[in-house]
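Input sequence (235 aa), recorded before submission:
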Amino acid sequence: MIYAFVKIFTEKEHAEAFIKGDLFMQTVSAFKEHRDSSGELRGDPMEGIVAWYQPTNVKVEVGGNQILSEDIAAPIAIHSKSVLDKNAFCIYSLNSRGFEAISAQTLRDFKSILEIHESCYGLGAYCVAVLNAQEFINRCSTAIKDRNLEGSMGLVDYFDELNFSGNFPAEKHGYQKRSFFSRQREYRIVLDINRTPSSSFTLNIGDLSDITSNVISPSEFNKHLEISLPDGSIA
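Predicted structure, C-alpha cell format:
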C-alpha cells in the first residue's frame, strides 16, 4: 500500500513548479549517464537494464579463447536502448513493503521505513509531500491518456546485485534497480514519448496544491511525520 509520496528537489522553483502540476521527466539514459558529486544518488550507471548475469552464469569467448568466470571482475549488465530512450518521473513513496502487519510493537520500525532516509538528503534541500497518493496516480493516468501517450506506473523493485542472475520480466523493464538504492523507495512513471533523438519532457497533470504540502525540507518532513493506530499507539 502507498500512503503518500514525497518529491525531493535541488531548486525551490522546481518544487513550486511541481505543485502547479509540472512533472519533469528525464530520459532513463540521462539517469544512467549522470554522475553525482557525492556518490550514486540520481545517477545510476545500471539504469535501463533488462538482464543481470553473475560471472559464474555466463560464458565469454574472445577469438575462440574462453575467459574463465573467476577472471570476470563484476556481473554483466545488459541494457536496452528502447528502455533508455523512455522518459521517467521518479518520486519517493511511503509504502508498506516489508510489513505484512503493523502493531504497537512494530510501529516505530514501520515509521522508520516511511521516513526519508538521511542518505536521500543529498537529492536536494527542498521537498513537497503528496498527501493523497491515489488521487495523484489518478491525475497522472488521466493526463497520460488525454495526450495519447504510452506509459506505465509502479513501484521500483530492488534486486540483490550480489546473488541475482538472469533476465528481468519485460513488464518490469525500467523498474529494476540494485538493492544499493532501496532506501529511495521509488515510484516511477515511465513514458514512451517516441522522440528522435530522445530528450527531456514535462507532463502537466494540473494544479496539485489541493493535495500537496508547502515546500519544506526532507528533515522537516520527517519531523512532522506521525503515525497512530486505533489502539492509541503513536510513533
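Checked by second reader. Helices lie at 12-19, 28-33, 81-84, 107-114, 133-146, 218-224.
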